[in-house]
Amino acid sequence: MNTVRRNAPFLILAALAAVFAGIVWFAMPHDREVKSLGILLFKLVPFVLATEAIAQLDPVWAQRIRLHLVVPVCFLVYFLYFVPKIFFVAENHPELYYYVLTLTPFVILSLVLAFRIGGGASHLVRRLSYAMILLMLSGLEDLAYLTVNEHTDPAWQTIPEVWTWASHMTVRLGHPASKYEAFTLIAVHIVLALFVLFAPKRWFAPVTRVFRRAPVQAPTAG
Known about the structure:
The chain has 222 residues and is an all-alpha fold. The chain has helices at residues 2-6, 8-27, 37-56, 59-64, 70-89, 94-117, 122-137, 140-148, 154-157, 167-173, 179-198, 205-210, and strands at residues 162-163, 177-178.
């Protein structure tokens, strides 16, 4: 009970941020143009509340409840919803795919950099970063593109039997992936990502020794 009381500001602000974000996303039109100053300011409310919630977050409590695991969840929201939506509405702009392809590792590294600057342990940085890149390479986004968008072309209204567009799968298999080969690759990558996130720390000891940060030496006189 004392823990909840101490973290009440974070919990309340986070809940309010979620409520206002829901209002903005589900109850307000998704207009490209801002039609009034009031609308602009209202749409900034979730951001302000979320910022203040994060500022109130107790790092010690966050570490105790392993809140760092929310980082890949946030990444998946970006990668499995917003990225497929962007590709769907801008499918006639092939260069966009390359930009998003490059942006996504940048987002991953930005997330783990912020985590590290905030005091995150180096072994957790590795876990988060490698798990997220595995999720990126898994093919989950290809599946999300087929499922989260409203396709009118009959060829895309069901999951294709052969995934000819998924070149990242083709180069690994040596041929375009069948639907079930794609599902298998996705499942394998998810299992590997979960292994990276949750495997005992001692299993990563050899990697830690190889990349261990050199100790800082005090300057010698003269």
